[in-house]
Amino acid sequence: MNRSQVNIAITVYEATTTPKWKMRFVVRAKKGLIFNTIQTETGYGYWHPDSLRNNPPGGNFPNWIIVEVKRTKEVYQQTGLNDLLKIVNKSLK
Known about the structure:
By secondary structure, the protein is mostly beta strands. The chain has strands at residues 6-13, 21-31, 34-47, 63-69, 72-78, 86-88.
């Protein structure tokens, strides 16, 4: 499938007592004007060490988040105050 055929919704559940927060990913396939859910996964996110240079890390850009789903880890980068995240090739440290 290519990017125009799917929609990915990411829900972040803010953590108040731990440095990790829960994340839910819902992948939907486009069929005409309707999106059907084809996969739902839950994982965790936490700040990459390079994002911990100032407090709070979310207020500085770019910042990086490590996302872990089913023991697979990827580093996502956020470059501004928006909903866009992209997977980047950055060391997990």
